[in-house]
Design a protein that fits this description.
Rossmann fold, 434 Repressor (Amino-terminal Domain), Lambda_DNA-bd_dom_sf (chains A, B), six-stranded mixed sheet, homodimer, elongated, alpha/beta, six-stranded parallel sheet, DNA-binding
Chain lengths: 337, 337
Amino acid sequence: MATLAEVARHAGVSASTVSYVLSGKRSISEETRLRVENSIRELGYHPNAGARALASSRSHIIALMVPLRTDMYVPVMMEIAIAVATTARGFGHDVLLLTGEEGPEAVRRVAASGLADAMIVMDVELDDERVPLLRDSARPSVLIGLPGDPAGLTCVDLDFTATGALCADHLAQFGHKDVAVIGEAAAVYRRHTGFAERTLDGLRSRAREHGMRVIHRPCEGSYESTAGVLARVFEERPDTSALVVQNEAAVGPMLALLRQQGRAVPEDVSVVAICPDQVALQASVQLTSVAIPAQEMGRQAVELVMAKIEGREPAPVTLLPPRLTVRASTGPAPTAP
Amino acid sequence: MATLAEVARHAGVSASTVSYVLSGKRSISEETRLRVENSIRELGYHPNAGARALASSRSHIIALMVPLRTDMYVPVMMEIAIAVATTARGFGHDVLLLTGEEGPEAVRRVAASGLADAMIVMDVELDDERVPLLRDSARPSVLIGLPGDPAGLTCVDLDFTATGALCADHLAQFGHKDVAVIGEAAAVYRRHTGFAERTLDGLRSRAREHGMRVIHRPCEGSYESTAGVLARVFEERPDTSALVVQNEAAVGPMLALLRQQGRAVPEDVSVVAICPDQVALQASVQLTSVAIPAQEMGRQAVELVMAKIEGREPAPVTLLPPRLTVRASTGPAPTAP
DNA sequence: CTGAAAGCGCTAACAA
DNA sequence: TTGTTAGCGCTTTCAG
């Protein structure tokens, strides 16, 4: 592996000049710059990451903490992770993958060792034990998700309250009066992840304004549990004419069950899903849906964290506005028999 | 951040002693070891990653290259990635996440900069452009997947040939004569990822021995495409009594469609899936399946790569044996009408 | 606009 | 069993 010194010798300049050509931190004459760049290319030089980190105390690495749990919809996590990685590369940074397994200790370790310059934390819970550590840490961090108390933190998330409200508005327009929310797995609520509750709040309060009735049932997402939930819903509220589904795994089973029960979508029942577009498009009926902007969240998280690394102080909370795409699964409420 | 020198002073020993306590590379008296460990704890010392990497030319980082594409079943990728990360931590290593985006250049960059000590590459194609680079690279690497020519490489993968054969055996036992394979998306075959072809080969040749007829149709996995594939299958081979499904996304739609068509599983049609257990268990009929051992693959990949880092030379190809779990979706072939 | 040189914090000979 | 010390390759003052 070629070293900076070798490049310097090859180009007939000093080491510092090569360094400055690389960093652009002081002006270099066109001529020497070209000579140096040539040498770099010819020797196939890549700066040594360790040496650079040691001398500059910047590793050009961003740590990404993903949850170990698997009860959330995994493709969304993956999409965020990939967006983070590619966006970070655009800023000349790499991404270190931390699983939740180490827990809060990972935060300490990475910060203290200087392994990463900053940290992005996914799947934040309302009362997350990593949050106090992050708040006190000398290294910048950005959360994807909203903890109970975001004071002193930087967070990005989809505006789930607005998402719920948007669903309510859309269904109200079609004259629906009885709405059922097929929610996330019970464990998600028990863990108080926040987003599920916020969706529900937004939907409920807007529904009230529209004079709609709402019931909510958690759903594990398997075929069996979806069947159970659906049965209970129509038993308790036979006039239910619209379903809002927040558990992506339940989408497929639910549509299959409705078909089986002879309930046509959207003639008998309208369905709005909160899910990635891919899921909405692959379903047996193209679903009206509010998309989870996974890429956008990853991208934003990196931009916020880079801002902090560079000493700027971004807005503490960034809520991405939801977008509802009307497809084939929603329509007017059936007129009373 | 405390430095090693500070720890040394605090413990009343030399820097090298602290270093050796940390690395265990030479024997230390019980007494000094304890004193040093205490100081480390008291000062909350974590070795500086950059300095360590520079001095030892080992970053204790393993790069993991994940595909950018999203036409493979994402949860499996994620599960492998998480298994890699947690296993690596057990070896005192961290994982750097590289997306396919940079392409082969990432291999060069990471190797030359010393950012990572080794590399694990997922979703390897039969004729992968990263493979020659990896083969020539000074840094160890392990592939998850099997390229066309594994010479000079280290690879782990599920034994897909055996997987196909296993499916054939199981169905033959039940007296099935006409089998249809619902395969991966056409793009997967076009890309020559290998595993899909190997499954098919294994299944076909074993089927021949059993006197079974096999047809194979690629399937995109959406409800619509699954419907089309299924229709064509039963049109061409009305006597088809068993389905082998290799595209996880098609599982849900397929079961829904069969139910709709009045084909009972397993009375009229047996179904074997090649998919993660979670998918097999969440389906409307508990599926007889061959599991994708994602965790095991991740774990093995790390162990192989660690062996190479430590100078050992592991077996070039590790094929994990498939395991078929019998559940509710397979049974005797229906007797001719 | 460019060069010289002092570290950054740690590892690993070499010495004792 | 422990200490001394010379780098590892780069960044960044300080000089010129």
